[in-house]
Amino acid sequence: MLRSTDEIIADLKAGKCSTFTGGVHPPDEKSLSNTTDIQTLPLPDKIVLPLRQHIGTEGNVCVAEGDYVKKGQALTKSTHPFAVPVHASTSGTVVQIGPHVVAHPSGLSEACIVIEADGQDEWTTLTPLAHFRSLPQQTVVEAICDAGISGMGGAGFPTHIKTGNSKTIDFLIINGVECEPYITSDDRLMQEHAWQIRQGIDVLHHLISPKAVVIAIEDNKPDAIKAMQIACQDKPEYLVVAVETKYPAGGEKQLIQMLTQREVPRHGLPADIGILMFNVGTCFAVASAIYEGKPLIERVVTVTGRAVRQPGNYWARLGTPVGHLLVHADYQVKKQPTPQVVMGGPMMGFTLSSMAVPIVKISNCLLVPAKGEVNFSEQERACIRCGACADACPASLLPQQLFWHAKAKELDKAQSYNLFDCIECGACAYVCPSEIPLVHYYRQAKAEIRLEKEEKSRAEKAKERFEARNARLIREKQEREERHQKAKEAREAALATKQQSAPAADSSPAKDKVAAALARAKAKKAAQVHSNQSTAPDNDADKKAQVAAAIARAKAKKEAAQASDSQENSADDERKAKVAAAVARAKAKKEAAQANDSQENSADDERKAKVAAAVARAKAKKEAAQLNEDSVDAEPDTHSQKIKPSTDTSSVQVHNAESLSAEKANGHAPANVDKEKRKRIAAAVAKAKAKQAAKRNNSEAE
What we know:
Blueprint: H1 5-13, E1 39-40, E2 46-50, E3 60-61, E4 68-69, E5 76-77, E6 92-101, E7 109-117, H2 137-146, H3 159-163, E8 171-176, H4 185-192, H5 194-208, E9 212-218, H6 222-231, E10 238-243, H7 252-260, E11 275-279, H8 280-292, E12 298-304, E13 312-317, H9 322-328, E14 342-343, E15 350-351, E16 365-367, H10 388-392, H11 399-407, H12 411-416, H13 427-431, H14 438-501, H15 509-565, H16 571-596, H17 601-633, H18 638-641, H19 649-666, H20 675-701
Parallel strand pairs: 1-13, 8-9, 8-11, 9-10, 12-16
Antiparallel strand pairs: 2-7, 3-5, 4-6, 6-7, 12-13, 14-15, 14-16
């Protein structure tokens, strides 16, 4: 059960504060830098401003390379609630927008804006809100957001998100503890600018309206406590409370527990238990934004360590390279075995990879230790399970188990041991006798878990988009079908209504004409279909006849080619080839005629008769030639002398053949034949040849 607000306020006024479990007491070493006033650095040649210097998303760049910007001009803008703008910390020209090494343990590069200073340091137009009490609360919150203010003592949570909170707040806690060794920037700021911090508290009090304001300062800072008491003496509801010097008393959860005995839920925020907390540096920035209209462009940075000759606190412009601060603090690199600069304190800081790293909104210290000053041993040894880390843990965790699971990449088991409750204070590593860098393992495991969650979240969002798209397509299809169905029903209803409302019009002369025209068109179409069906067999027969003729012609060509290839020089072979070609042509014509139409049979018979006559004439011609040769060489007998000349060539040829065959059969040659008979026979043969040649020419012509 939470303690009542009145009880807590009464205990605080009486100077009663609780404590928290765990914690360590390292040597503070604050005297190196808290004895001198805050100094102002000269303007660097170049300013490097990372686009993201806080928890949340970065804004969109609203300038381009080559643009001239003035001091205090916004370089980014965004409508995202967790985005705050980045402002130019001096006037000059934008020379580069791109990746640059930033203040991060990984040493990786991020998007930055590089400005080449012109030395004029000219301000842009400023709009202060001195009478903020008479303005709407939202206007003041927007002014804080536009000034680019985020938490300057921890992770850099956007201030306007806290001030715009709608929950009931009991306590507004101003954190001035600054518990980590070596760091004194908040101490010097409270000593020198207590009144302006008080003005920032007034603005926050107006926006949040808490029941009480508690300004907590560690009891090893008496000058700061006195300065804040003087600044707040006219505000009895502002309580300046000194807390125990114990590390990490400046942690948000630890300080809340010390002041109010309330515990922040594991997955909750201080606002869930009625508490909001701001750093003193954040209050200073709020006062500058509201009363002067200045955006957050500079902060106090502690440069300390025995490797610098002039340790102290400096007003550093945001974007100032670390090397620029070290030059003015007189960095003695010979006092270190290897060059080493730590951003932050010895407990929670990290070693920088480059001197070009710029100062950002959460950069509160640069530690440059000499040899043997701070133990940053990298000689990790095996865990001896002494349990000292568990005793020192202010969050009551089990650092041993977290270390084993983080090192073995057993992330689920590490989460089961409440890995994200670790505030990375470094108390466990400080007391570890094996010098194991426990915090580094925890940070790496957290980063891997966050990466897995981001990938899973992206996959789930992609799945949701895919399912939403499918649902949309199905819905659109159903809507189309419904529209089509409705249109169809409407058409049918309109048609039915029209038919019912105009029965007489259906029998009008115009409609009769239309019906008659439709009937004629249907009859014509039916006749065409019937005609096509009746002529289909004839067309098929014609097509078959044409195909058969084409096949016959192809065969004739093939046979003619074969005959021509085997031609010989003799006349007999030529006659045989011609006869074969004539026969093939006759066959082709016959087949084509038979396939085409049965009426062409008579023409085929005539052609056959002509072919047969040609063949007979060819045979007769051959026999007559043979007979002529025999009659020239042989002498005719007495029977042949009685034969009278006749114009009938065939009878002469037959008679001569018979005479010759008879004489040959009797076994003796013909007797003496006179010259006249020979002449008559030769003339008859010549006439027969002439007649045969004439007939052959006629047949070839046909």
